[in-house]
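Dear support,

We are seeing what looks like truncated structure output for some complexes. This example has two components. We would appreciate it if you could run it in full and send us the complete token output so we can diff it against ours.
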Amino acid sequence: METGFITAFWYLAIAALVVPLMLGAGAILRPKRTGENKKLDAYECGEDAVGTAWVKFNIRFYVIAIIFIIFDVEITAIFPVATLYKDAVANGTAGLVFGEIFLFIGLLLVGLVYCWTRGDLEWVKGIAQTKPKRGIHG
Amino acid sequence: MGSHSAAFAHSLQGWTAGLPILGATPLWIWAFLSALLVIFLLALPFGGIATYVERKVAADIQDRIGPNRVGPIGLLQFFADAVKMLAKEDFIPRGADKFLYNLAPVLVVVGACGAFAVLPLAKALVGADLNIGIFYLVAVTTLIAPGMLLGSWGSQNKWSLLGGLRGAAQIVSYEIPVALSILPVVLISGTLQIGSIVEQQGWVWQGEMMKNYHFWNMFHNPFTMFSVFILFVGGLAETNRIPFDLPEAESELVSGFNTEFSGMRFGLYALGEFCDVFVMSAMVTALYLGGWQVPFLNLENMWVTLPSGLIAIIHFSMFMAKTLFVVFIVMWLRWTLPRLRVDQLMGFCWKGLMPIAFFNVIGTALWMWIFHGKSMMQLVMGQ
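Here is the complete output from our reference environment:
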């Protein structure tokens, strides 16, 4: 097993070296005429860029990230149990392991339903509220 | 099943054992060489040739001719493109975060090429058959998400930032259905080692070994037939392919997260993404479509004994044929479907794919329990 992890390390190391290698090869071939001029500006369809691009962004990205973390951690925790399931089927204790998997996935599903009903999975929020109500407009 | 964890390195050592100097080379050098071979002769050339093939497929679908100037039928087009990209001026936009801007392509390329380590190209040609192979595959390919996000944040461009944020949200969201669609395979195979998962998808007609082989996981039970499609669709979204290419939606975001990347830096992004498409297709192939297994044929246990080199070549061709077919479907979809909206994309993941993926996991577990782990093929053959 040790050799396997060493090989995996070689893959990652060589892959990390590909980028400097290619950019280095380019550095020999390409012209160096970069001056302090307009082409260094951020591209905003020809207009001069206004302000910084490091702006605040929508809170829903954080919500998605939090939901993702919860689900991903729980799924990671199911994998070891799932690995044992085949052996459990073979020696007749499948019911126990199935119960555990079902419990885990049930918890996840309750979480999903909770997020769903709360409206956390809606990308565009507030459309329902802005609809004109029948009672007011006759 | 008794195979070495670094099968490729062991194979190289075995095939050169009788030779004078090569025979005495230690294993870690062979491991290094196998990594070099796979990355420089498979991953990177695939990224190059795939750009040419994609253009040809597009041309065929749109009734055009496509690239046909450089070399016979335009075959050297990718070489010309590479030379052009290398010769392009290399600059970093004003005000950019230089460290993140330089780091981003490295993360994308490491994420895509590093995943090749665990791909079972043939029984004898697995770079590193880790006992946590699936975790490694999922973890390493996810490096592409921070690569995109950091690159877009670092390039000081509003289009880039929007694309990068969308990309990160999309990749992490579709990670869940993908992981849930890998789970049925783990339930069936009882291991995270990809080599062993592929091994079990073989088929033998008779003998004591019959119960160990259950044919392709796709045909194991009715639920896995659905989860292979969820894995494929989730893979499409994770590799930012149409209809899920919102991070670089050119009609809204110029070029999305790679707007400020030019020349070879852009080339590396494109290369990384094409390698990622290959990795995704290979994952579908290895987990559900039998990997290197020749359907209904066990090459190592036949009436004639084949040399190990020949078996490796046949296995490799089989694996590549299946994987490239999946890659072709990915390209075909690109020129067939329109792009989704962001809210449709997220809704489809959380409200469409997730419940079905959960259902598939429970269904597969129930099937295993009721039929004592036998596949549909085994039941039909009355085992």
